[in-house]
Amino acid sequence: MNQPTYLDEKFDRVKKADFLKYRSGDLPTWCPGCGYFGIMDAFYKACRQMELPFENICTVSGIGCSGRTPIFVNSYGLHTLHGRSIPVACGLKLARNDLNVFAVAGDGDALGIGGGHLPHVARKNIDITFLLFDNSIYGLTKGQSSSTTPLIQKTNSHPAGNPDSPLNAMKLALAYGASFAARGFAGDPEGLEDIIIQATKHKGFSFIHILTPCVTFDKVNLTWNRLKENVSYLDSVHDHTSFESAMRIANQEPFKLGLFFQDTSVPSYDENLDRLNG
Asked: Which helix (H) or strand (E) is 262 found in, with range?
């Protein structure tokens, strides 16, 4: 067997780093240790693996720490209003069906002020990929309780403990009729990369619930150590075509990662429009 030459090794290094072309020249402003770095690492690599043209990618965000995402992607992007990444992304996709549209939001942005948009994009099955960065707290506004903060957890807005029951993002997406629903973990960029690829290739609305820590304002709940101890991938026997199985697993902890549910028989919104206009 021939030994690799210096040029071979150099080529391999360049090839492995090619995903960095999808990263913009702007330096991220997230806190050191934030899980969003792992999420974006997975996103860049997924785009590279699919060889998506830069000009055919558009990321759409709302407000919050996740709202800065489009700034760090070497493509088109829209930084919109609080809770409005989904409707803006839907309008963009319907106007430009040739684009790969990625909507991004945090748990507060997506399930708080923007919570009314998730059921409608799911039932319409508009062909966008939605990445929910869930750290179960408001990070940008300094640690208040969010829609997914656990009951009784102490936060800056509830120093005696959060009195509100948390929403289960995965159960909501499934109940609303998402034709693709998966969960990833910021601490496993390789696994998340595979999920993003599957979601992007799915024809219809793709929902990705991403567990990630807020290292600055949450020292109790979704910390790196606790997450690493409480996540595992779905068993190979899991039937991702079974809605009942997906709902049952969505209610379990430790948290399961991977593809919960996919229904390829449901026509996407643009396919329904073509049928009506034809």
From this structure: strand 255-262
